[in-house]
């Protein structure tokens, strides 16, 4: 099953909201920040996950937005390059950190977040990444295959509720034996993000 088919099956059945999922560009930045403030509040900047994102750019090709057919930004998700501690042999393990995932508050439950999640994880797998880690409610993220099984010996650079510290292996065994502190890696931030091409269009 292709990524397009996988996402289309998860669109909300009432036909109330058509939207496009595409790669984020620099032109999305202001609307994205405003959406995050509405959906998550200013406390989002104090989260432990923010320590892994601060001063970095998202992983190449793994920042997405959902926009309505009128152009309004409806949702956002990014994935970030991190080191997930070391494996049993002491070698550093590369992984992705997902977040934040946010949807316009008035449109929650319309399938936008689900579509963003399925597209983001499918693209991460297509690009050859081995695992995705996040902090979030297991009641929501378990549907995508996330669990706390592979994070038992990993730690965030700050306080975290263990039940919400989750991972998804995109390659079987990628996090086997992993232990230690999550640390940032990848591209350093700059004032302008490279504009990326439109990826996919979804409507209902």
Question: What are its keywords?
Answer:
204 residues, alpha+beta, Aminopeptidase, 9-stranded mixed sheet, 9 strands, 25% strand, globular, GNAT_dom
Structure commentary:
This protein has 5 helices and 9 strands. By secondary structure, the protein is of the alpha+beta class. The protein has one domain: Aminopeptidase (3-Layer(aba) Sandwich). Strands 1, 2, 3, 4, 5, 6, 7, 8 and 9 form a 9-stranded mixed sheet that branches. Strand 3 and strand 4 form a beta hairpin. The protein starts with a helix and ends in a 20-residue tail after the last strand. Mean pLDDT is about 85; it is low at about 1-15 and about 190-204.
Task: Give a short overview.
With 204 residues, the protein is of the alpha+beta class. The protein has helices at residues 3-8, 29-40, 50-53, 112-126, 138-141; strands spanning 19-23, 63-68, 73-86, 92-98, 102-103, 131-135, 154-155, 165-169, 179-184.
Shape: globular
| N-to-C order of helices and strands | HEHHEEEEHEHEEE
The largest sheet, given as strand count, sense and whether it forms a barrel, is: 9 strands, mixed
User: Which value, in Å, is the CA radius of gyration?
Assistant: 16 Å
> Structural class per helix/strand content?
alpha+beta
Poorly predicted regions are 1-13, 191-204
CATH fold naming? Aminopeptidase
In total, how many domains does the architecture comprise?
A: 1
Q: So, CATH architecture?
A: 3-Layer(aba) Sandwich
Number of strands: 9
CATH class: Alpha Beta
CATH homologous superfamily classification: Gcn5-related N-acetyltransferase (GNAT)
Number of helix segments?
5
What integer is the average pLDDT? 87
Tell me roughly what share of residues is in helical segments: 10-25%
Distance N to C terminus:
19 Å
Percentage of residues in DSSP E strands: 25-35%
């Amino acid at each position: 099953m292709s990524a397009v088919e996988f996402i289309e099956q998860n669109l909300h059945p009432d036909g109330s909201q058509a939207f496009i999922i595409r790669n984020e560009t620099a032109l999305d930045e202001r609307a994205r920040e405003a959406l995050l403030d509405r959906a998550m509040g200013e406390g989002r900047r104090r989260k432990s996950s923010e320590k892994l994102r601060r001063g970095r750019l998202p992983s190449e090709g793994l920042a997405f937005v959902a926009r309505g057919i009128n152009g309004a930004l409806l949702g956002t998700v990014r994935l970030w390059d991190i080191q997930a501690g070391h494996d049993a042999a002491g070698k550093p393990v590369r992984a992705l950190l997902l977040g934040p995932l946010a949807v316009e508050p008035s449109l929650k439950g319309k399938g936008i977040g689900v579509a963003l999640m399925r597209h983001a994880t499918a693209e991460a797998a297509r690009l050859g990444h081995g695992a995705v880690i996040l902090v979030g409610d297991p009641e929501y993220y378990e549907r995508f295959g996330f669990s706390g099984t592979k994070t038992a010996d990993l730690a965030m650079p700050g306080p975290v509720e263990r039940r919400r510290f989750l991972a998804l292996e995109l390659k079987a065994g990628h996090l086997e034996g992993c232990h230690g502190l999550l640390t940032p890696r990848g591209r350093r931030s700059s004032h302008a993000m490279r504009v990326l091409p439109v990826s996919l269009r979804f409507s209902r």
